[in-house]
Fold:
Amino acid sequence: MKDFFQVVHSRASVRSFLPDALRDTEIDALLRAAMAAPSAVNMQPWEFVVVVEKNTREQLAAALPYAKMAAEAPAVFIVCGVPARACEKSADFAVLDASIACENLLLAATALGLGGVWTALFPDKSRIEDVRRILGIPKDVIPLACVPIGRPAGPVKPKDKYNPEYIHKERW
Structure:
């Protein structure tokens, strides 16, 4: 397993996958890492739909313009926020907290030698409704992101995104 900084700096968006199924232990490890994320007042307002069935993955790919790779990824994770369980029952907190869980999911994939890509559902209402319809997600739950994960089909090329111009010391 890679150390933390290797994981962070080697994470990249992977859009092409080998057909090999993920092991149940890998899926469990990914979900445990996602749920280890911090959340406002530790409310943990997230839930996940794990999709491995090919027909459902194809439906998601057909409905989502930026998630066509979902059809070929062996697993697709739909990260959801649950406002009723969020701090102050806030949709904003639910989205923020589920976003952090989503990042943990992607970092865990990298640590396991897998690859994934975050594709946004929120705030696009049509994408949210399509995913709700396909997966039976209740109206009071926010499908935030579609994250296809699998073994990368080719080399992963991370980008150095560090930019000192974005850093302000003490004041803007």
